[in-house]
C-alpha cells in the first residue's frame, strides 16, 4: 500500500499538468451552464410526468 501511495504521488508530480487559470474558468462556466440546463430539463420532465399521472388518476378515480 505504501508503494502504491508513493508511486501515485510521483505520478502526480511528474505526469499531471494542471490547466491554466483562464482554461479552468472557461471549463467552470461550461460545467455550470450544462448543470443548469440539465436541472431545467429534469424539472420539465418531472413536471410533465407529474401532470400526466395526476390526470390519469383523476380520470380513473372519477
Structural account:
- Pfam families: SecE.
- It is found in: Membrane.
- This is Preprotein translocase subunit SecE.
- With 62 residues, this protein is mainly α.
- It has one domain (2-61).
- Helices cover 89% and strands 0% of the residues.
- The chain has two helices and no strands.
- The radius of gyration is 24 Å and the shape is elongated.
Overview in brief:
The protein is mainly α. The chain has helices at 2-15, 21-61. The protein has one domain (2-61).
- Rg value: 24 Å
| Helix content estimate | over 70%
Structural class: mainly alpha
Content of β-strand:
under 5%
Discrete helix count: 2
Structural domain tally: 1
Largest sheet: none
Assembly type: single chain
Order of helices and strands: HH
Low-confidence stretches: none
| Mean pLDDT level | 95
